[in-house]
Every structure is written in C-alpha cells, then in structure tokens.
Amino acid sequence: MGKGSGVNEGQPMSRPRSYFKTLAWMLLALVFFYPMLWMALSSFKSSNVEIFGHPFSLPHQISLANYQKAVRQGHLGAYFINSLWVTGLSAAAVVCFGAWAGFALSKARFPFRKFWLALFFIGMILPVQSYLIPLTGLLEMLGVHDSLWALILPYTAQNLPVAILLFTAFFVSLPAELEEAAKLDGVRTARFYFSILLPVARPAVATIVAITCLNTWNEFLMAMLFIVDPAMKTLPVGMIAFEQAHNTDYPALLAGLSLISVPTLLVYAIFNKQVIRGVIAGAVK
Amino acid sequence: MTRRGQILFFLPALLVFLVFVLLPSTQTLIDSFYSHQGIKHPFVGTLYYRYAVTDPAFHQSLGNNLKYLLWTLLFEVAAGLALAVGLEKNTRFNNFLRVAFFSPAVLSMVVVGLVFGFLFKDGVGVLPGMLNEGRALLTISVISGWASAGFFMVIFLAGLANVPEDVLEAARLDGASARQTFWRIKLPLLKEVIYVALLICFTGAFKAFDLFWVLLPNQDHTSIVSTLLVKEVIRFDNQGYGSTLAVILTVLVLVSVAIIIGAKNLWRRRERRGPL
Fold this sequence. Notes:
By secondary structure, chain A is mainly alpha-helical. Chain A is built from 14 helices and no strands. By secondary structure, chain B is mainly alpha-helical.
C-alpha cells in the first residue's frame, strides 16, 4: 500500500522495534478501529439496554434480526439497489466520457487545449455548493427530477474533471509510436482507441472507477436536496430517513449503518491498491 | 485523428460538464443579485452581499469554518504526517496498521456522524456531553480527524516513497539522527505533497457539510457557511441569499487555492535564487 516496493527490503533493521512502541501503535490502531467495531458488534445486540448498558461487551448472541428489521422497516434493500444503480451508471459514464475527452485532449494540436485543461482544473476544485442551488430547477426543467437520473447526471459531471485530467496525463505519457504504428497498419482512430488504447489504460480506468464509486456511494448533500420521492432515495439519505423514523431503535439503526458500510469496506479490502492509487491520483493531479 | 474525430470524442464530457456544473455555477452568481421572494424576481444588486457583511449568523458560520480549518490542519494533516512518518517502513505490521488507519476514510460521513452521534448522545451515549455548546466544534474536528487522518497518511506515504534512498543512505553515513533526517531531509523533499495536502485541507474545510449536518442539524453554534446556505434555501426558501452565500463560499475556496499555489511558486522562485 502506498509505498513503492521494497525500499527497505534486504536491509536488516537497525534495531528491533521495542515492545513499548509496538504496543503503543496497537493501542492507537485499536482506538481508530474501535468506533467501527462498536458499530458492527452493537448491530447484533438485542436491545438499547444491551448496547448502552454494556457498551464494551460482546453481543450475547449473534442474530440477524436487526438486519431483517433494517431491510423491512427501513427499506434499506430498496435504497441499496438505488445506490447500486446510481453508483454504477455514474462510474460508467465518468470512465467513458472521461477517457474519450482525455484521448482527445492528449493530442497536442487539440483546439484551445490549455484552456480546456485549465477549465477542468477549476471544475475540480469548485465546491458543489457553487452549482447546487440552480440544479434543482434545472433538473425539473429537464424532466428528470425525483428520478435516479437527477443524481446520475450531476454525479457524472462532478467526477468528470478529475477523470479527464488523469486520462489526459495518462495518454500523454504513452509513447507516440503506439499510434504511429497503428496508423501504418491502417487502423482507424476509433478502432485504435477501443482495441489498443483502452486495454493499455486499464490502471487509469481502475483508479477512476475506485474514486468515483467511493464518492457517489457516499454522496449526501445532492441526494438529500434532489430526491423527494422516498422510493428513489439512495442509502445515505435513506439512512437519515430511517434514523428519523426509528430514532430510538439503536440495534436496527446500527445494523443499517453496518450494512451501508460493508460494500465500501469490502471494495477497499479487495481493491486496496486501486483505491489507494485513486486517492493519490485524485489528490495529486 | 481528424479534427472532427477529436471534437466528437471531446463533446460528451464537455456537454455534461457544461450543463451540470458551469451553467448552474453561472446561474448561482446571477441569482445572488436577484430577490427570489414572491412571484417577481427584482434585481437587488449587492443587497445580499451587504446583508451578509452584517449578518451575525454568517459571521458565526464563517468563524466556525476558520476554526474548523485550524483544527483539521492539526487533526488531519499533522496527524496524517505523523502516522506516515511512523509507519514509513514497509513491514507487514506497518501495512496492517496503515489499513486500520485508512479504513474510516471509505465510510460515508453520514455513517460517521450517526455512529458518533449515538456514542456521544446525552443520556444514553458512552461519552455524553461531547457535543455541548462549548465543545461541539472541537469534537466534530476530532471526528473529522479520525475519518480523514488516514487519507492524509496515504498521501504523505506516497511522498515519502519518493524520497531517494541514496540521500537517506548518505545521511545515515554522515551520522544524522532520525530527527535530523526528518526535519532536514524528508520534510523539504515532501514539499510537493505538503502543498497538495494543504490544498485539500483548506478547500475541504470550506466544502464540509455532511458531518455538521448529521451531527447537529439545528444548532447555531456549529453552523458553517455550507449548512447556513442549505438552511436558507430549504427552510426559508431564500434562494437569493443562499446563492450569495454559495458565491462567497466558492470565492473562499478559489482564493485559498490561489494563495497556496502562489505561495508554492514564490517559494520555488526563492529557492532557485539560492540562499540569501
């Protein structure tokens, strides 16, 4: 993770890490991990009394009753599917449009190239609040308000600038011979792009998918403002609605919160490298 | 590739960005000069801007943004740097710790807010009283640090990985202590990454919304500009003033980016000129 491979390998450690230091780090990691652990453990407990009366104990018995309740009463199943659609389609659109635009902008002779790159850089730092308020009216005008498109379209737009800048940098870094050779072989531009360039760009695609998915899965502000219909809510907003309706049923609420977090934690666990690379690329570009 | 082909490839991204980011951003700027109360929308000039200057709610919110910024510099950036330096060596133990410190960063801020809300809830919570008036902003900043320090750690680790090994080796041979190596060698070489981290921290402090909204939605003492503007729009239907606050927020973000990039360039030029 993070660091380049094997910087310190093959070198004996100057002195063994002292037990005290190891213990201190373990303790710190436990403090960091504890809120998540508390959330997961408490989601199996049977009542508020068990959660807050014995906050640090393990649950008496593991049952999925709270999870059933969260899905049935909190409609988290429906929200989950909405979130999947929104996240999946936004990520797909960001990768498609971003890679196409990056391909075009990687050509040195693209008209006003510098201007577009500067524009997307500003787009990347622009806070969501700067375009949030008129979007409600705009989405209504386009007739997509209160549908999942009311989120997919702004999410795509919001995540595009980073993708475009990253893909442009990636394609610029590729050797020019790649395209020249293809041209000599009589490969047309579109085919060159789809059958040669895109497979090469797989690392950049994975990176963009990772950050876009994380951003959109967790997005709250626009989802709260643009979606009124309860059937169209995504998980973060649905979870708030669930909390407001059942604000004292802590076991079920914590089950819901665990349920939302499992996908991102799982994706992070599996695609660790891509997520980290995505974080760094999104940050540094 | 033909000119037409290039433009065809470029068009979809430009269109989506134009319609859903640039156009509404411009609209926000225009709206901030009009009143939206009633059916007619008369032009009011800089009325809302002048109102903001005297609005105590805005003052308090902006003050909270700035305090939050200072705290997150400590709890996110400095803490992330400390974690990165401590876990720099690529050992299995360190790798395990890095995962533990980064994992909160993939959680939704709604989850973070609700879980800590339960933990700190008066009456039932494990640690009640943490969200009292005098303490709430600090508590939110600490929670923010908990959620984001790992993110900054990852950025700094990437920077540390780029510190050339032969430079460190030379320092070791010259008998430099760990502290000297950090302050004299690693930190100056981390400059690029530090600028990036500052950029993210500064803009993040103004963009923040979720945690504040979820933890204390109705409290004035933890109001920040972004929550104030959402309240103006959805509670009071005051689109004009909301837009004005949005413009101010955007300007604050852009100005802080300009300042950091400017400082970076200034520093670089001074360095090129050499000492003295």
